[in-house]
Amino acid sequence: MSILRQDPTTKDWVIIATDRGKRPDDFQKTATEFALLPHDPLCPFCPGQENLTPPEILRYPHDSLLDWGVRVVPNKYAAVGLKGELYRKETDHFFREMGGVGHHEVIIETPQHDQSLSRMTTNEVEMVLAAYHDRYCALRQDPQVKSIVLFKNHGERAGTSLIHPHSQIVGTPVAPLLVRKKYEVAISHFDDTGRCLYRDLVDEERLAKVRVLFESPSFVVFHPFASRVPFETWIAPKNEEATFGHVTPRHLAELADVLRRTLKAFDDALGNPDFNYILHSAPPEDDTKHYFLWHIQILPRVSTIAGFELGSGIFINTILPEDAALYLKEYL
Amino acid sequence: MSILRQDPTTKDWVIIATDRGKRPDDFQKTATEFALLPHDPLCPFCPGQENLTPPEILRYPHDSLLDWGVRVVPNKYAAVGLKGELYRKETDHFFREMGGVGHHEVIIETPQHDQSLSRMTTNEVEMVLAAYHDRYCALRQDPQVKSIVLFKNHGERAGTSLIHPHSQIVGTPVAPLLVRKKYEVAISHFDDTGRCLYRDLVDEERLAKVRVLFESPSFVVFHPFASRVPFETWIAPKNEEATFGHVTPRHLAELADVLRRTLKAFDDALGNPDFNYILHSAPPEDDTKHYFLWHIQILPRVSTIAGFELGSGIFINTILPEDAALYLKEYL
Q1: A64, exposed or middle or buried, with CB in 10 Å at 0-12, 13-18, 19+?
Q2: Structural domain boundaries of chain A?
Q3: Residue B166 known to be catalytic
């Protein structure tokens, strides 16, 4: 029989149905050989074609005029944009609409077209994370921004449209319900217990051990108890940082190594799977409180979000996270 | 600039970003020619191979011994199952787990392997809907069932694993958060106004006209104001039926024609797109109240659910539903 597990951070349930008898290595795909070149003359993210993107917001190293390691540019096809003022209207006194004011930026992670975070050096990944941090801090200064979504789409099934490695950061003028729900649950736990829900969750995962992939001095990497998809992985700090905005340079360097190692294990164990990751953090206006803990959620796209998930919000996961961890650990 | 629109039924926002300049016919794909045969000797849903499925729950016509039009069988790989008793436990006093008790059935829509609802006769589609209704009513009798999710996955991008046309019905032992949220919003609207939110929504869509695809005597078919994906389509009754369980045989016959016409227009306008549909209905224990209206949501899978959607729950739709409606209406 299948089991249902509750995600302590959303209170929603996940169905873990292992009846199909899928083994962890069933999710391994043969890595697609794209025969990518290190430079694509048509790619707007490749060096020499910087004029194909909107004007640059940031580049690392700061003082480089020609060579760059990381660039941040506005998304040419922005979901929300800087133009226009914040308005709200009720159409026909029933429907509510507002202007898509906000920020939508692209972090170009490397000048090299065929590169990936899993194959970059720790120093190179650190530069990407420093750009995340820089832009995260900039966006949370904008009082119009109610929520910051920092994410990466890797591969076609994860929704990427350009192969050149990049991440995205979006500052939205509304707080998404899912995000609001996570805060509500965390605040309720804090009110009940005086403790941080995520701190408790990380402690419980470390105690249970069976889903922990590895630890570094300041981070824990684990498959969560109520994993929504096979090999869902969280990276969480061991200290009490509510917001990614407060992360220190020393921690960024350590995180770079942890993230690179994790993605390298994915590549080796699953054959360069498509994945999304999302960096969750305390709300910009409330980030000194101790009810939240920033963390990264990695969701491999080795299964399909189908009608049941869309209709109920409940995910069906065909592999027990304990079994997934046992398998993935061999590649670490 | 993009616009944000609030879904009145969930209070969540959708971003409509048309900057990419996508036109409705950009979503048209060349229909894949699978060269399917009407009978596949390896398919567990094809006639003659009935022994490959678990024992039958229902068949239409009832009195047929050999030939059948529709069969309902337990899902061999059930997300939730009949076995076992309902238990809940708290693992390590923190994590909550329960047994996956419930129902998971497959409605085999036709004996013909290469058939589709859009190409079936209205009478044949009516038989499928009658099976939906029959099993919906059966599942809502079970006091352990807190929510019924009736859905169809059509095509690989929609998560189908078997090509032979089929739908699924799942009775879960918990109420999913998304479903609970929809009820809460509807009840709050009812408390505020004394009216059914969905009734108001359908009235407003009919008044606005621009997103209505067509009407039949008892049904309205429209792209909702806050469409999450290109060509999202709702089919809603004009009367006050809270639950699909109360639908009459006359209405089922009419719905069969409406559903078939809608899917036919999808085929013609978009080239047999992958899609999910979900039948939403009032909660089993509360279905005589007038705050809800059952309805069908069709979600074409012509775009990808990516990191932003997974991280925020907010969908980015690249086409205005008014424009989608203008285009799709030409095929009706």
Answers
A1: exposed
A2: 32-331
A3: yes
Q: Which residues of A touch B91 (CB under 8 A)?
A: 208, 225
Q: Please tell me which of the candidates B5, B97, B153 has its beta carbon nearest to residue A4.
A: B97
Instruction: Identify the band that residue A26 occupies on the pLDDT scale cut at 50, 70 and 90.
Output: confident
- How far does Cα B159 stand from its chain's mean position? 13
pLDDT digits (tens, 9 = 90+) for B36-64: 889 999 999 999 999 999 999 999 997 77
Nearest residue in B to A198, CA atom: B94
User: Measured between CB atoms, does A20 come within 8 Å of chain B?
Assistant: yes
Q: In sequence order, what are the beta bridge partners of B6?
A: B13
Q: What is the pLDDT of residue A149?
A: 97
B79 touches chain A (CB under 8 A): yes
What does DSSP say about strands A103-108 and B88-91: parallel, antiparallel, or unpaired?
unpaired
- In Å, how far are A199, A218, A308, A327 from A214, measured between CA atoms? 17, 11, 33, 13
What does DSSP say about strands B212-215 and B233-237: parallel, antiparallel, or unpaired?
A: unpaired
Please give the structure tokens belonging to residue B131: 């099976």
Which residues in chain B are contacts of A44 at CB distance < 8 A? none
From the list A133, A154, A164, A166, the catalytic residue is: A166
Does residue B306 sit at the A interface (CB-CB below 8 Å)? yes
Helix or strand (DSSP H, E) at B193: helix B177-193
Selected residues 80-119 of chain A with any CB under 8 Å from a CB in chain B? 80-81, 83-84, 91-92, 94-101
Ordered strands of the A88-91 beta sheet? A88-91, A95-99, B3-6, B13-16, B315-317
Give the homologous superfamily in CATH for domain A32-331.
Answer: HIT-like (3.30.428.10)
Cβ–Cβ gap B157/A304 under 8 Å: yes
Q: Taking residues B94-120, what's their average pLDDT?
A: 95
DSSP state of B213: E
Q: Do A151 and B307 touch (CB under 8 A)?
A: yes
pLDDT digits (tens, 9 = 90+) for B140-152: 999 999 999 999 9
**Cα angle A7-B84-B90, degrees, rounded to a multiple of 5:** 35
Residue B130: CB atoms within 10 A of its CB come to: 19
**Considering the domain B3-20+33-331 in this protein, what is its CATH number?**
3.30.428.10
- Report ipTM for this prediction: 0.95
List the alpha helices (DSSP H) in chain A.
Answer: 122-139, 177-193, 197-208, 249-270, 307-312, 321-328
